[in-house]
Write a structure and sequence with these properties.
This protein starts with a helix and ends in a 15-residue tail after the last helix. It folds into two domains: about 1-115, no CATH class; about 120-250, no CATH class. About 25% of the residues are buried. A two-stranded antiparallel sheet has the order 1-2. A hairpin with a 7-residue loop joins strand 1 and strand 2. The radius of gyration is 20 Å and the shape is globular. It has 13 helices and two strands, in the order ααααααααααααββα. It has about 260 residues and is an all-alpha fold.
Length: about 260
C-alpha cells in the first residue's frame, strides 16, 4: 500500500513521506473495517444517507454500492486525510485522485479473499449490562486515539493543544501541581465532547452506533462511586446514555485502557 501511494505524483506534491506512511495505515485499517464488518465506515455511509440523502458528498454515486468497497470511499478518505495533514484544501473530485482510487481498489479487491478475519472487535465493542466504567472509557479512548477514522485529526488537535499549553505555561497550568492531571482532563474533553469532522459526531455518538449490546429492555444507569459503575443499555445505546455514564469520571484518575 505504501509503495502504491508513494508512486502517486498527486500525493508527492501534497503530503510528506511520514504522512504517506500514516495514510497507508488508514487505508489498510479501512480495508480491515470492511473485511471484518467492524462497522465504522458502514456507519459513516449509512448516517450520511439518513441525514443528507447521499452516502458520500462530492461524487457521482450512480454505481455506488454501500455494501461493497467503492473507489469513492478511497478517494474521500485520501482527500480527508490530506486536508487534515496539510491544512490545505484541494478538490475531492480531482481526476488524478479518482484514478488513484481506482488503482487502490484493485489492490484491495485482489487481497479480499485472503484478508485475515478476526472477531476481536465483536468482543471489544461489546457493552455488557454491568460494564466496568473504565472499560467503557477505554472504548472511547480507542475511538479518539487509536481509530483510523478519528485519529489523524483528533491526535493532531490534542497534541497541538498540549504543546501550546506547556510552551506558553498557561495560567491554568500553574494552578495544577501535576500537569498530567490537566492533560488528562483535556483528553476527557475529546472523549466526551469534541466532535469529529466525520458526521460531526462525538465519541459517544460513534460508540452508540458501532457498539454490540445485548437486548435489554431497561435503560437505567447507576454511577454511585468511581470504579463501581453499572449500566443497563438497550440494543442500541444512545449518545446520552454513554455520556451520562461518563459523568462519574474522577479527574485525578489515570486511564489504563487496553490497546486493540
Amino acid at each position: 500500500m505504501f509503495e502504491a501511494l508513494s508512486a502517486s505524483s498527486l500525493l508527492r506534491g501534497i503530503i510528506a513521506r511520514e504522512h504517506t506512511v500514516e495514510l497507508a495505515v488508514v487505508l489498510a485499517s479501512w480495508f480491515e473495517d470492511y473485511a471484518n464488518e467492524i462497522g465504522l465506515w458502514a456507519t459513516f455511509v449509512r448516517k450520511n444517507k439518513e441525514m443528507h440523502g447521499y452516502e458520500l458528498p462530492f461524487y457521482n454515486l450512480d454505481d455506488y454500492d454501500p455494501n461493497d468497497m467503492n473507489p469513492e470511499d478511497i478517494a474521500y478518505l485520501v482527500w480527508h486525510f490530506c486536508c487534515n495533514a496539510t491544512n490545505k484544501i484541494f478538490g475531492p473530485d480531482n481526476a488524478d485522485l479518482l484514478k488513484m482510487a481506482d488503482a487502490l481498489l484493485e489492490i484491495f479487491d485482489k487481497a479480499l479473499d485472503e484478508a485475515p478475519g478476526t472477531d476481536f472487535y465483536d468482543d471489544f465493542l461489546h457493552i455488557a449490562p454491568d460494564i466496568y466504567f473504565f472499560d467503557l472509557k477505554g472504548k472511547l479512548y480507542w475511538l479518539v486515539f487509536q481509530c483510523y477514522l478519528t485519529v489523524p485529526e483528533m491526535r493532531q488537535e490534542i497534541d497541538e493543544a498540549v504543546r501550546k499549553l506547556l510552551e506558553e505555561k498557561d495560567e491554568l497550568l500553574r494552578t495544577y501541581e501535576d500537569s498530567n492531571k490537566l492533560i488528562y482532563t483535556m483528553q476527557d474533553d475529546y472523549l466526551y465532547k469534541k466532535c469529529s469532522s466525520f458526521l460531526a459526531f462525538t465519541m459517544p455518538d460513534w460508540l452508540a452506533e458501532v457498539a454490540r449490546c445485548p437486548t435489554i429492555p431497561c435503560t437505567t444507569i447507576s454511577a454511585n462511586y468511581p470504579g463501581e459503575c453499572s449500566a443497563s443499555l438497550s440494543m442500541r445505546p444512545t449518545r446520552e446514555t454513554i455520556t451520562n455514564f461518563g459523568i462519574c469520571t474522577p479527574s485525578d484518575f489515570f486511564l489504563c485502557s487496553r490497546n486493540p
